[in-house]
Specification:
32% helix, 24 strands, globular, alpha+beta
Length: 426
């Protein structure tokens, strides 16, 4: 099969997003046109939750940076390996800190190009050629030099169409995980915020006449038999492992959950594990269903700091980095799954942000975690809730694993299809 060797800059137009002088913090609005920032770039998708927005007038003013269907958007700094593929006609703006790639459709089929750029080989090339010591950075020149190999255009189209099923299934799994997360939040809210948990007759507690008593610490009523206290006496916090680039350079070793493993929705992000091959203390190990909390934040609005995630039920053992702490309850009065969901509430997150300091990088004072006051429902109710959350977590872990396998198999098939080693079904 004939193959053309070229570079991304030869087959696409690449521009840098607007500078800070063109798009100010004061320009962002609650409703408007979405602006793709580095934190909104997933694995060939746009992560729209908590995405920044601008007015239609600013969108027109910044016309040069508007995206079109089948554009590709990269982050200029940080996680420079991934890109978002604009899959529809919805308007977006390529934001500050990003690069927009617009393929020449006469030279390359955009969907094929997106698949090619998602290959592990291309991601490694970008990491190796990125500049910067503390944080990887790329620019139009580096991105323009990315090697690209093109079969005939008809073959490009066939390849993209053949692999579309993988992407459809991956997106379906992501949607299912998001829906399960929403279900968990709804149950928590219904049981522990609205106090409509099942009473002894299986009826909603509060609306069925369950007794409520005043709590001075919370300045509100809570169910009879519940109490409230700060977490300090009931939890143990253990800081994660310090590491250098040398410890993770090989890409081999024990999987290590790190700050990049938490997205702006405060969920676990599976594709950013690092692998640590140095020596470590057993205290830095984390096991499935244990809770880790972010103590550092690089996002614009402190989306991540103080956020808890659960260690996935995939590997037998993980390490966790110095940007995280592990939280272990010290008493059976406080179920880990109940506590995890309590620390996922907006009430907690708005509280904990007050203990983060810094300008560009936020650092959390963990006294804030210890000082947070929680309700202690009866153990039986906590355990009942825990079974539901554990089942959701296990199912999400299975979907994460399935997506990892789908992506690996998709990336395995791509070069075989490119080289003609695997044929197309006619």
């Amino acid at each position: 099969m004939q193959m053309i060797s070229t570079t991304l800059g030869e087959i696409a137009d690449i521009i840098t997003g607007p500078f800070g002088s063109q798009l100010h913090m004061s320009d962002y609005v609650d409703e408007g046109i979405a602006v793709i920032m580095p934190q909104n770039i997933g694995d060939r998708i746009i992560l729209e939750d908590k995405i920044a927005r601008i007015s239609k007038s600013d969108y027109k003013r910044l016309k040069k940076y508007q995206t079109q269907k089948e554009d590709i958007v990269y982050s200029r700094r940080g996680d420079v390996e991934k890109h978002a593929f604009i899959n529809g006609d919805k308007p977006y703006l390529c934001g500050t800190g990003c690069l927009r790639v617009r393929a020449n459709k006469e030279k390359v089929y955009p969907r094929y190009l997106s698949l090619f750029l998602s290959r592990p080989e291309t991601k490694r090339w970008l990491s190796q050629h990125a500049i910067g010591s503390n944080m990887m950075n790329i620019n139009t020149s580096i991105l323009g030099n990315v090697p690209v190999f093109l079969p005939d255009r008809d073959i490009q189209i066939e390849i993209a169409e053949s692999l579309q099923g993988f992407d459809d299934k991956i997106q379906l799994n992501i949607k299912m995980m998001k829906e399960m997360e929403e279900v968990a939040k709804l149950i928590y809210s219904y049981w522990f915020l609205q106090f409509e948990f099942p009473d002894k007759d299986g009826k909603p507690y509060k609306s069925s006449g369950g007794k409520m008593v005043w709590n001075d610490e919370l300045k509100s009523e809570i169910p009879e038999g519940w109490r409230c206290d700060a977490l300090k006496k009931y939890i143990k916090l253990t800081k994660g492992i310090s590491y250098t680039s040398k410890n993770i350079k090989s890409g081999k070793g024990v999987p290590m959950i790190n700050l990049a493993s938490i997205d702006t929705n405060r969920n676990y992000k599976p594709d950013k594990l690092k692998f640590y091959d140095g020596e470590y203390n057993e205290a830095k190990e984390a096991y499935p269903e244990e809770m880790l909390i972010a103590c550092t934040d690089l996002t614009r609005n402190a989306y991540i700091v103080g956020s808890p995630i659960l260690v996935p039920n995939i590997e037998k053992k993980y390490l966790y980095s110095m940007d995280l702490v592990k939280l272990n309850p010290l008493t059976d009065e406080l179920d880990p799954m109940y506590l995890y969901m309590t620390l996922r509430t907006e009430t907690y997150h708005n509280y904990i942000k007050g203990f983060a300091t810094g300008t560009n990088v936020l650092h959390l004072n963990t006294d804030g975690i210890e000082g947070f006051k929680v309700c202690f429902p009866c153990k039986k109710l906590q355990r009942k809730f825990s079974l539901l959350i554990k089942e959701i977590h296990k199912t999400k872990s299975k979907l994460i694993k399935e997506n990892r396998e789908l992506i690996a198999f998709r990336d395995f098939l791509l070069p075989l299809l490119m080289n003609g080693q695997v044929g197309f079904k006619k």
